[in-house]
Amino acid sequence: MPSDLQVSNIRDLTNANSAISIASDGQITVNQNNPTLTLGSNTTFPSGMITFRSAVIEDSTDSGNVTTDASNLFIGFGTIQGPIALATGFRMNIYATGGQFSLASNTNFGPAINYKTGSTFSGTTDGDVVRTNFSSSTSKQSQTYTRVEVSNSSGSSVNYYFRPAVQSSDSRGNIQWFANTTYAKRFLWYEFVKI
Fold first, then answer.
1. What three-state secondary structure class fits 45?
2. What CATH topology corresponds to 50-194?
3. What does the pLDDT read at residue 91?
4. In whole angstroms, what is the distance from residue 51 CA to residue 54 CA?
5. How far is Cα 109 from Cα 141, in angstroms, rounded to an integer?
6. What does the domain layout of the chain look like in residue ranges?
7. Which of 80, 140, 153, 181 is buried most deeply by CB count within 10 Å?
8. List of E strands, the chain
9. Are 139 and 102 in contact (CB under 8 A)?
10. What is the rounded distance in angstroms from the CA atom of residue 92 to the CA atom of residue 182?
11. Tens digit of each residue's pLDDT (9 = 90 or more) over 28-73
12. Cα separation of 183 and 195, whole Å?
């Protein structure tokens, strides 16, 4: 036979503290600083909620030069991040910022993020790349920033790998992304967001 249990407080085993309070409007208060809560595998987060964030500092790895007669060439470099398991129903925002660019004159260029699914990179030009363009009117650019968004609705977890990259948009490419004590540190970070 169905019944209701009506309480205003749930106390601990020694009856010393009112651990959980339930207000008349149904609001629940956990009366503990930094409580440990374990959520089951069926827990559903609201859309747009950031559920995880991680950062890496790269302050000593330079990209090397992109010098080529082909357009849109990129090179990935630096420490590979991954495998990072992206659960189904989530997207991952990947960011890279900092350091300084140097480039040949009259070249469209940009800091980029090189990423791949399934397995790690087999070379410097393996995987996909997303670039942020800068003006070609200057030979150096500081305060660099780029971002890529990937999502997973496949029904199962997908492993991602990523690293910094540089890319030139035309055949006059001669660019380099510095990140050292002479210029500035480069930061990479990623976050999971519920779709």
1. coil
2. Jelly Rolls (2.60.120)
3. 92
4. 11
5. 10
6. 50-194
7. 80
8. 9-11, 18-22, 28-30, 50-58, 66-67, 74-76, 81-86, 90-98, 100-103, 109-117, 128-131, 140-142, 145-152, 158-168, 174-178, 186-194
9. yes
10. 32
11. 777 766 667 776 767 777 787 777 778 777 655 666 555 554 555 7
12. 37
Beta bridge partners of 114: 129, 163
pLDDT band at residue 74, thresholds of 50, 70 and 90? confident
Distance CA(85)–CA(71), nearest Å, equals: 33
Buried b (16+ CB within 10 A) or exposed e, 13-31: eeeeeeebeeeeeeeeeee
The mean of the pLDDT values for the chain is 76
| Segment (H or E) for 179 | none
The larger pLDDT score, comparing residue 106 to residue 38, is at: 38
**Nearest-angstrom CA–CA distance, 147 and 34:** 32
> In DSSP terms, which residues pair with 53 in a beta bridge?
191
Residues shown for the chain: 195
